[in-house]
Protein backbone atom coordinates (compact mmCIF):
# COMPACT_ATOMS: atom_id res chain seq x y z
CA UNK A 1 0.00 0.00 0.00
CA UNK A 2 2.21 2.86 1.22
CA UNK A 3 4.63 3.89 3.91
CA UNK A 4 3.82 4.81 7.45
CA UNK A 5 2.31 8.12 8.42
CA UNK A 6 4.73 10.62 9.94
CA UNK A 7 3.70 13.68 11.90
CA UNK A 8 5.40 16.93 10.92
CA UNK A 9 4.10 19.80 12.99
CA UNK A 10 0.31 19.84 12.63
CA UNK A 11 0.41 17.88 9.34
CA UNK A 12 0.90 14.23 8.41
CA UNK A 13 3.00 12.93 5.51
CA UNK A 14 3.38 9.56 3.81
CA UNK A 15 5.27 8.22 0.81
CA UNK A 16 3.85 6.36 -2.18
CA UNK A 17 5.02 5.29 -5.62
CA UNK A 18 3.71 6.54 -8.95
CA UNK A 19 5.18 5.51 -12.30
CA UNK A 20 8.22 4.06 -10.55
CA UNK A 21 9.12 7.20 -8.63
CA UNK A 22 8.66 7.82 -4.94
CA UNK A 23 6.41 10.74 -4.02
CA UNK A 24 5.34 12.31 -0.75
CA UNK A 25 1.87 13.52 0.17
CA UNK A 26 1.01 15.88 3.02
CA UNK A 27 -2.36 15.63 4.79
CA UNK A 28 -3.88 18.02 7.27
CA UNK A 29 -5.61 16.04 10.03
CA UNK A 30 -6.17 16.36 13.77
CA UNK A 31 -5.50 12.76 14.71
CA UNK A 32 -3.62 9.71 13.49
CA UNK A 33 -6.91 7.86 12.77
CA UNK A 34 -8.20 10.73 10.65
CA UNK A 35 -4.88 10.87 8.77
CA UNK A 36 -5.08 7.11 8.12
CA UNK A 37 -8.57 7.51 6.69
CA UNK A 38 -7.49 10.37 4.42
CA UNK A 39 -4.44 8.38 3.32
CA UNK A 40 -6.61 5.38 2.43
CA UNK A 41 -9.06 7.60 0.52
CA UNK A 42 -6.20 9.18 -1.44
CA UNK A 43 -4.62 5.85 -2.35
CA UNK A 44 -7.89 4.17 -3.29
CA UNK A 45 -8.83 7.05 -5.63
CA UNK A 46 -5.35 7.12 -7.10
CA UNK A 47 -5.36 3.41 -7.96
CA UNK A 48 -8.99 3.18 -9.01
CA UNK A 49 -9.97 0.10 -11.03
CA UNK A 50 -10.86 2.29 -14.02
CA UNK A 51 -7.16 3.06 -14.56
CA UNK A 52 -6.13 -0.60 -14.36
CA UNK A 53 -6.27 -2.97 -17.30
CA UNK A 54 -8.49 -6.03 -16.92
CA UNK A 55 -6.84 -9.32 -17.90
CA UNK A 56 -7.15 -13.01 -17.13
CA UNK A 57 -4.42 -14.64 -15.11
CA UNK A 58 -3.58 -17.02 -17.95
CA UNK A 59 -3.26 -14.21 -20.50
CA UNK A 60 -0.99 -12.28 -18.16
CA UNK A 61 1.16 -15.36 -17.54
CA UNK A 62 1.61 -15.72 -21.30
CA UNK A 63 2.68 -12.06 -21.52
CA UNK A 64 5.07 -12.53 -18.62
CA UNK A 65 6.59 -15.66 -20.15
CA UNK A 66 7.22 -13.78 -23.40
CA UNK A 67 8.93 -11.09 -21.34
CA UNK A 68 10.98 -13.71 -19.45
CA UNK A 69 12.11 -15.44 -22.66
CA UNK A 70 13.30 -12.11 -24.03
CA UNK A 71 14.89 -10.58 -20.92
CA UNK A 72 16.12 -13.53 -18.85
CA UNK A 73 18.57 -16.33 -19.41
CA UNK A 74 17.17 -19.38 -21.13
CA UNK A 75 17.48 -21.60 -18.05
CA UNK A 76 15.84 -18.99 -15.79
CA UNK A 77 12.96 -18.55 -18.23
CA UNK A 78 12.50 -22.34 -18.27
CA UNK A 79 12.37 -22.48 -14.46
CA UNK A 80 9.92 -19.56 -14.47
CA UNK A 81 7.68 -21.32 -16.99
CA UNK A 82 7.59 -24.47 -14.84
CA UNK A 83 6.61 -22.50 -11.71
CA UNK A 84 3.97 -20.53 -13.64
CA UNK A 85 2.53 -23.73 -15.12
CA UNK A 86 2.04 -25.14 -11.59
CA UNK A 87 0.53 -21.89 -10.38
CA UNK A 88 -1.86 -21.74 -13.36
CA UNK A 89 -3.07 -25.26 -12.60
CA UNK A 90 -3.62 -24.36 -8.94
CA UNK A 91 -5.56 -21.17 -9.67
CA UNK A 92 -7.70 -22.89 -12.32
CA UNK A 93 -8.54 -25.56 -9.75
CA UNK A 94 -9.54 -22.78 -7.32
CA UNK A 95 -11.59 -21.20 -10.15
CA UNK A 96 -9.68 -17.93 -10.03
CA UNK A 97 -9.71 -16.49 -13.52
CA UNK A 98 -8.91 -12.78 -13.24
CA UNK A 99 -5.48 -11.51 -12.26
CA UNK A 100 -7.01 -8.87 -9.97
CA UNK A 101 -8.90 -11.57 -7.99
CA UNK A 102 -5.69 -13.12 -6.62
CA UNK A 103 -4.77 -12.06 -3.10
CA UNK A 104 -2.05 -12.91 -0.55
CA UNK A 105 -4.13 -15.70 0.98
CA UNK A 106 -4.29 -17.54 -2.37
CA UNK A 107 -0.53 -17.30 -2.79
CA UNK A 108 0.06 -18.44 0.80
CA UNK A 109 -2.22 -21.46 0.19
CA UNK A 110 -0.24 -22.25 -2.98
CA UNK A 111 2.99 -22.05 -0.95
CA UNK A 112 1.59 -24.46 1.65
CA UNK A 113 0.45 -26.90 -1.03
CA UNK A 114 3.81 -26.83 -2.81
CA UNK A 115 5.72 -27.20 0.48
CA UNK A 116 4.07 -30.60 0.96
CA UNK A 117 5.54 -31.77 -2.36
CA UNK A 118 8.89 -29.99 -2.65
CA UNK A 119 11.92 -29.02 -0.60
CA UNK A 120 11.79 -25.54 0.96
CA UNK A 121 14.47 -24.19 -1.40
CA UNK A 122 12.41 -25.27 -4.43
CA UNK A 123 9.28 -23.65 -3.02
CA UNK A 124 11.26 -20.46 -2.35
CA UNK A 125 12.44 -20.43 -5.98
CA UNK A 126 8.80 -20.67 -7.12
CA UNK A 127 7.90 -17.85 -4.73
CA UNK A 128 10.62 -15.70 -6.29
CA UNK A 129 9.04 -16.27 -9.69
CA UNK A 130 5.57 -15.44 -8.33
CA UNK A 131 6.85 -12.24 -6.73
CA UNK A 132 8.57 -11.19 -9.96
CA UNK A 133 5.39 -11.95 -11.92
CA UNK A 134 3.18 -9.81 -9.67
CA UNK A 135 5.78 -7.02 -9.55
CA UNK A 136 5.59 -6.85 -13.35
CA UNK A 137 1.78 -6.88 -13.14
CA UNK A 138 1.86 -3.77 -10.94
CA UNK A 139 4.49 -2.14 -13.14
CA UNK A 140 2.39 -2.78 -16.27
CA UNK A 141 -0.72 -1.40 -14.47
CA UNK A 142 -2.73 -4.64 -14.42
CA UNK A 143 -3.10 -4.56 -10.62
CA UNK A 144 -2.77 -1.77 -8.06
CA UNK A 145 -0.91 -3.69 -5.37
CA UNK A 146 1.41 -6.71 -5.35
CA UNK A 147 -0.36 -9.52 -3.42
CA UNK A 148 2.89 -11.53 -3.22
CA UNK A 149 4.84 -8.80 -1.43
CA UNK A 150 3.98 -9.85 2.16
CA UNK A 151 4.66 -13.56 1.50
CA UNK A 152 7.68 -14.77 3.45
CA UNK A 153 9.98 -17.52 2.14
CA UNK A 154 10.15 -20.88 3.88
CA UNK A 155 12.99 -21.42 6.32
CA UNK A 156 15.63 -23.77 5.00
CA UNK A 157 17.03 -26.16 7.63
CA UNK A 158 20.79 -26.15 8.06
CA UNK A 159 22.57 -29.26 6.84
CA UNK A 160 25.20 -31.05 8.87
CA UNK A 161 28.67 -30.21 7.56
CA UNK A 162 30.45 -33.00 5.71
CA UNK A 163 33.84 -34.03 6.99
CA UNK A 164 36.56 -35.77 5.06
CA UNK A 165 37.71 -39.12 6.35
CA UNK A 166 41.39 -39.92 6.94
CA UNK A 167 41.54 -42.18 3.89
User: What's the CATH topology label of the largest domain?
Assistant: DNA polymerase, domain 1
Corresponding CATH architecture of the largest domain: Orthogonal Bundle
Sequence stretches where pLDDT stays below 50 over 5 or more residues: none
Could you give the order of the helices and strands?
EEEHHHHH
Strand order of the largest sheet: 1-2-3
CATH class assignment of the largest domain: Mainly Alpha
Radius of gyration: 20 Å
Number of domains: 2
Structural class from helices and strands? mainly alpha
Largest sheet: 3 strands, antiparallel
- Per the principal axes of the C-alpha atoms, what is the gross shape? globular
Tell me how many strands there are.
3
Helix percent band = 40-55%
The chain-level mean pLDDT equals: 86
Summarize it.
The chain is mainly alpha-helical and 167 residues long.
What do you see in this structure?
Helices cover 49% and strands 11% of the residues. Strands 1-2-3 form a 3-stranded antiparallel beta sheet. Helix 2 runs antiparallel to helix 3 and helix 3 packs across helix 5. The chain starts with 5 loop residues before the first strand and ends in a 28-residue tail after the last helix.
